[in-house]
Amino acid sequence: MQKIKCWRMRASGVLVAAIASLMTASTAWAAGGGGDGLSITPNTSLPGTSETQSLVGGLMTYALVASFGALVFSAGAWAYGHHSHNPSVQTRGKSGTVVAALAALLIGAAGAIIQKGYTAGQGF
């Protein structure tokens, strides 16, 4: 037991040292103007870009269809659990309904989330 605690302490110390080193290096890079002359923009003319965008759009469609199916199934389980006085099924149906709705929300907002992150990263 003592060896495990000792190993964890060493590992956490190494992790803290690595993070401190990265922070120092990034601060020095920023202070030295390391990002002033660098300009990288997305390149949409690469081969396969349009096919990849089409593939991602198709995956989003399948994910939305799956979340719709999960929502319908979970809502049915919720109703069945309520009317059959089965609280376990009712609770699982309720949870499934919330998860399916959140999944659809995230799928729909995925593009905006990525764009917002990219825009925020441009400010660094």
Fold and architecture overview:
The chain has helices at residues 2-31, 49-83, 87-122. It is mainly alpha-helical and 124 residues long. The mean pLDDT is 81.
Identify the notable features of this structure and list them briefly.
124 residues; mainly alpha; 0% strand
Structural class category? mainly alpha
Mean pLDDT across every amino acid position: 81
Strand count, sense and barrel status of the largest sheet are:
none
Rg of Cα set: 24 Å
Question: How do the helices and strands follow one another from N- to C-terminus?
Answer: HHH
Shape designation: flat
| E-strand count | 0
What percent of the residues sit in helical stretches (DSSP H or I)? Answer: over 70%
The number of distinct helices, counting runs of at least 4 residues, comes to 3
Q: End-to-end span in angstroms?
A: 44 Å
